[in-house]
């Protein structure tokens, strides 16, 4: 996925290997990028069309798969995944999970 070199955050869920069958085309990715203020630029568009970050995307996907993590968000404490679910989205519940993990 092209990086947002301008500092804008791209939605990584909109990425994927857009050059492969079943992946997103560059034009589809650019339509998604239109929804992120400040993301589109000549450099971003060129990177999407030339697929210049393909290797980075492949490496990131391999690292995610090798991590054993089943999804995002995931919180690890000393290499152990904390229980997920609603606790990751509720401050009081998340604080309890952290306390239960000894933090």
> How many strand segments?
2
Averaged pLDDT, please? Answer: 78
Low-confidence stretches: 1-21
Class by alpha and beta content: mainly alpha
Question: Distance between termini?
Answer: 35 Å
Pfam family, one: DSBA
InterPro entries: DSBA-like_thioredoxin_dom (IPR001853), Thioredoxin-like_sf (IPR036249)
Protein name: DsbA family protein
Give an overview in words.
This protein has 103 residues and is mainly alpha-helical. It has two domains: 1-67, no CATH class; 70-103, no CATH class. Helices cover 40% and strands 4% of the residues. It contains four helices and two strands; from the N terminus they run αααββα. It has helices at 26-33, 42-50, 54-67, 91-100; strands at residues 76-77, 80-81. The protein is elongated, with a radius of gyration of 17 Å. The relative contact order is 0.13. This is DsbA family protein. Residues 1-21 are annotated as: Disordered.
Features:
single chain, 103 residues, mainly alpha, 2 domains, 4 helices, 4% strand, disordered N terminus
